Amino acid sequence: MEAYKEEMDERLELTLGRLKEIKEEELTDAAYCRYFRACADTLLMLADILVNENISAKEMKAVNARLYEDICEEAYAKSYCNPAYAAEVFGEKYGRLLSAVAAEMRSAIPAAAEHDRQPFLIRAEYLLLLYGEVKSALEEEGQLPAYDNLKESFYYFVSDYYETESLIKVRGVTEPEEDFALKIIEAAKEFDPDILYMYGEYITENETELYKYISGLSDEKIALMADTYTEGYRKGFINSGKDLSKKKTVNIRYPIGLERVVKKAIENFAEMGLKPVIYRAAQSIFTTRNVEKNGYFGANPNRQYDYDHREDLALILDSQLLTRRLECLEEAFKAYREKAVVHAGPAVIETFGEEPFKPENKAAACRYNEEQRQLMARYVSENARINNTYIPGDERSFTIISFPVPEIGENFEEIFDAVIRINTLDYEKYQKIQNRIIDALNEAESVHVKGGGVNRTELSVALWKLDDPEHQAIYENCVADVNIPVGEVFTTPVLEGTNGILHVSKVYLNGLEYRDLFLEFKDGMVSDYGCANFEDPEEGRKYIEDNVLFHHKSLPMGEAAIGTNTTAYVLAGKYGIESRLPILIAEKTGPHFAVGDTCYSHAEDVKVYNPDGREIVARDNSVSIKRKTDPKNAYFGCHTDVTIPYDELELLEGIRPDGSSIKIIEKGRFVLEGTEELNKAFEEV
After folding, report:
1. Which of 8, 128, 144, 341: CA 20 to 30 A from 350?
2. Separation between Cα atoms, residue 277 and residue 260, nearest integer Å
3. pLDDT, tens only, 591-643
């Protein structure tokens, strides 16, 4: 270990010395000289943090704005990280590559904050290699290196370090001793948000005000929030018949500002015998960037930046690189096999309320070609398979809960209290009402859904046939366990015979807006799609293919559900926050349909029962069943819900084998006998 540290220190000393020289040297091409000096400045600034292992929260606060100033919206127009600006300066081909490199240098921020030399050196040493290539060509040949030569060096930078980065990724998922965030949580003091700057994440008033608000809540309310979250996790194991006692770790994901709630949750998990593993949301070409964050995270200084760079891998992606990435991931899991198998799965806290994001599609940004889209679709599927092999899906569970942030507006505190009430609604009342819906739909062979007003939905969803209705159910009665808040019944539809159009006038999915989104289904598979976000319909199709279908040309309908949480629906309308609800809550405010894997993905063979003891038999479809014969084509690694709000719904009815109707919802109101109480929330408006 001491020898390794000495090696890192020696490499760091040499690297920093060379970076400082870049600032003094002149290149014959002034534009490239300015570019490399800017990148060197970024790394040298980060190095000051990297080597100062006793840096204080006050010092980190002082540099926080500087860490992100070049990609904040006002400065982004002239940032090398902006592919449009880089293309303007260097031309389209060179600009795309150099913009991707500049973004990758910024991904060393976590390494600096965590005083981890290796990830920092990987990036800094590559920049020096790239600089050397450009400098030599300009001096010896009087011109830039061939673009293909620079691209090749970038290719081998990524390929060579997939092994290292995969180990870092898997260690973060499985190793409880990786306690960087845990130390910050434990050091947090009430009403003093300065500790948040220690993460190295971008911190704004949104995070600090949330932190102070949470500090002012009573111990009882904090316990209520944390207990609802952790108890939902525990119930998820019980309700799915999985043995939590075999597990030793739980992955806690949260937005910065909720440390007090997380600290209480960690205590609760400890009583279940679980230690936390807490990792940072990914922000590198090795893990891909996304507008939506998965891990712990601060504010997003510029969501357009993440959107612009989400497909930087298109510069170099081929089948060989993809194979290398998957092999490295599998080898990393093998190295942590013993710790992976006792991992229980994620416990997620989300926040919502930020201004909705409307991305701009930039011509200069990297985009996958058709072959690369297919490769990425394969990667998503294989990545899910590898994860499931080492963290078995039939042995793990999850839970998700969500809270608003101050950015939601002046009614933040009222909305926050209302969301706590929604998260703690009487699940027994909902369980009884939802059981009535399940009883009714057990008589049906299909569900017919028709939109109202501007909504063009016309959909027929085929349902499973029951062999033993007394002991079986088609729909799961979803109360407040893995998906908080309470309020839905859901099923895996039969693909064959599921046909029609699903349409919503406006919806936000994974942080992105869609206007007039439609998905057409033939035998349960997406056959056509579009939206009105762009003048060119093809741009809309690409937008959906990238962000809803995740680079697949088609996906199956993996879930058909009926949301019953009218209280959440009314809350959203009362405060005008419909566009800011997370999918987690939005899906409970109307019928919703998911494209991608089923809700039972990788655990279809595990028997699941409703609270009344009936087994839910609709866990598979004709795609997921391929896991038994063709596992590589059984799963897609994605599941995206699209909700039709009650006010866009004309009719939802079950159709019996004799053609007679069982009306569940009509003109946006529940009409099935025994569900009338759900309409009371509408009357309170």
Report:
1. 341
2. 17
3. 999 999 999 998 899 888 998 999 999 999 999 999 999 988 899 989 999 99
Q: Which residue has the tokens 């919206």?
A: 73
pLDDT exceeds cutoff 90 at 74: no
Q: Which residues contact 394 (CB under 8 A, 6 or more apart)?
A: 242, 602, 603, 605, 606
For 160: left if phi > 0, alpha if psi spans -120 to 50, otherwise beta; the answer is alpha
Give the Cα-Cα-Cα angle 183, 189, 191 (nearest 5 degrees): 140
* Confidence at 578, pLDDT banded by 50, 70, 90: confident
**For residue 148, what pLDDT is reported?**
97
* Long-range residue pairs from 158-162, CB within 8 A, at least 24 positions apart, any chain: 158/285, 158/286, 158/313, 158/316, 158/321, 159/321, 159/324, 161/122, 161/286, 162/286, 162/324, 162/325, 162/328
Q: Which of 167, 214, 346, 334 is nearest to 269 (CA)?
A: 346
- Amino acid identity for residue 386 in this structure: I
pLDDT at 685: 58
| Strand 639-643 versus strand 591-596 pairing type | antiparallel
Could you tell me which of 110, 137, 112, 108 has the C-alpha nearest to residue 124? 108
d(CA 155, CA 635): 29
What's the mean pLDDT in 157-177?
A: 94
Q: Is 582 helix (H, G, I), strand (E, B) or coil?
A: coil
C-alpha distances in Å from residue 657, one per residue of 345, 470, 491, 653: 40, 18, 18, 13
Banded pLDDT at 199 (limits 50, 70, 90): very high
CA distances from 341 to 65, 394, 395 (A): 40, 11, 9
Angle at 378 between CA 618 and CA 107, to 5 degrees: 115
Whole-Å CA distances, 79 to 96, 265, 286, 337: 13, 40, 22, 42
Could you give the strand order of the β-sheet that contains 669-670, starting from the edge strand earlier in sequence?
A: 525-530, 512-522, 494-509, 458-462, 446-451, 649-655, 661-666, 669-670
Distance CA 120, CA 381 (A): 30
Residue 483 has a pLDDT of 84
Neighbours of 363 (CB within 10 A): 9
H helices of 216-347, in order, are 219-239, 259-271, 303-308, 319-335, 337-340
Q: What is the DSSP string of 282-316?
A: P-STTT---SS--SBB-B-S-HHHHHHTTTGGGGT
Q: 481 falls in which pLDDT band (50, 70, 90)?
A: confident
